[in-house]
């Protein structure tokens, strides 16, 4: 257990908000759990606090470290962050833009390399890098793009759609 002890005192408004979260079943389980932790750790509660952090952890079936982290977030960053946690900080740049997708579809509709019956996802990914359409690409990205464009690597057509049979044709 960490040496730093976070003592928290909820205002009546915060306590009311936490009680509403716990009473309604409309919130995520983690949010309800964090609300229960904060309510049980409140120093300004109407009833004097008798449970230790480890007792609260045992009752709620969480670790004592989780109790500590929730209290720390509440003291350092406020109620909203203590309840919901931090949002993900990672932002991914899209590798597969329209031009890349066009090259990929054109390549997948072309003849496979010698010694191969059809294009595999790994072959396509390697050839795209080889042709310098992109610096690096995973076969999973190739799969997602082809799935999105409804391309079929095994079909032996030139990529154009089939004509539908009508009554006059």
Structure, described:
The protein has 169 residues and is mainly α. The chain has two domains: 12-84, no CATH class; 98-148. It has eight helices and no strands. The chain has helices at 12-23, 29-41, 53-60, 64-77, 79-84, 98-109, 121-130, 139-148. α2 packs across α4 (64-77). The longest helix is centred in the middle third of the chain and has 14 residues, at 64-77. The radius of gyration is 29 Å and the shape is elongated. The model has no long low-confidence stretch (mean pLDDT 83).
TL;DR?
The chain has helices at residues 12-23, 29-41, 53-60, 64-77, 79-84, 98-109, 121-130, 139-148. It contains 8 helices and no strands.
Poorly predicted ranges (pLDDT <50, ≥5 residues)?
Answer: none
Beta percentage is: under 5%
What percent of residues adopt helix (DSSP H or I)?
40-55%
Number of domains: 2
State the separation between the terminal residues, measured CA to CA. 80 Å
Helix and strand run:
HHHHHHHH
- Treating each run of at least 4 consecutive H or I residues as one helix, how many helices? 8
Please provide the count of β strands.
0
Task: Name the shape in a single word.
Answer: elongated
Structural class: mainly alpha
Radius of gyration: 29 Å
Largest sheet: none
| Chain-averaged pLDDT | 83
